[in-house]
């Protein structure tokens, strides 16, 4: 039986080709993808293409597009065995994280991929990324999808989407999940590390929840920063604060007062680390005690991309019982270690 994959094309470098006369990049008509990559026809699955009307650079993508994609997957969930999203690389980790929270109790693969060089380039990485992603998006065993989560496939590696970060603007190997092992690797064989795959603990039905609140701000501290800037933060519901190492900040009375004032105005403070690997551990150094005192939330080893999109999804979301902090510390879909 041929598996059915829905390919959603959003834009990015992957859908571009070089105009050899002018030397510049231009988006090509994605309806012609089968002519561009005839090998796609050789893959043992049936592919339908849903291109965005106007291909976007991923820096122009955000909640509107996440919702659109999530709803489109929801509408087509029963008709396809897997979903492949072609996406610009710059914000792919944000979209992958946001989608992982929106697509609840996923039992089918949702794979995102893109490329560093356009599909029409002689040295392109687009072909391999696209073809192998199709394999992963249609991989079934005993009538059950092998991948049941939102994943990113890039340069021979399959990664948990909400653990990824774009680590290189230069190398083909652009993504990493420093706090989670890889889900699969493509070599001569297509390998899957089954122990690393996400399996929902609840037996709930697949559901799309596109709730997003944009009352979230991200701030990175640095030595010598003026704390007065914190008092200039507009009233925001969630501040994701990226601090040093395992959760340290300037140990001054002024810091305590400033952050306490934010808490008093009702701002939730989520603390994450500037290190890409490892995470927050309140209490390890006395310079983290301020966070315990003001009741800040530890983001543990979550990425910035995931912390931001998780906060956006949870804030004022009527589908979640309990408070923001209580829900934020939970591992919803593999985004954080337990
Ligand atoms: N600027 C592009 C984008 O993110 C980069 C890429 O696709 O690689 O849409």
TrEMBL record:
Residues of the active site: 13, 89
Organism: Kaistella chaponensis
Family: Belongs to the asparaginase 1 family.
InterPro entries for this protein: Asp/glu_Ase-like_sf, Asparaginase/glutaminase-like, Asparaginase/glutaminase_AS1, Asparaginase/glutaminase_AS2, Asparaginase_C, L-asparaginase_C, L-asparaginase_I, L-asparaginase_N
Ranges where the Asparaginase/glutaminase C-terminal domain occurs: 217-318
Single annotated GO MF: asparaginase activity
SMART domains named among the record's database cross-references: Asparaginase
Protein name, UniProt field: L-asparaginase
PANTHER family according to UniProt: 60 KDA LYSOPHOSPHOLIPASE, L-ASPARAGINASE
Domain L-asparaginase N-terminal positions: 4-194
Gene Ontology biological process: amino acid metabolic process
Record-linked Gene3D superfamilies: 3.40.50.40, L-asparaginase, N-terminal domain
Chain positions recorded as substrate binding sites: 58, 89-90
Pfam family, one: Asparaginase_C
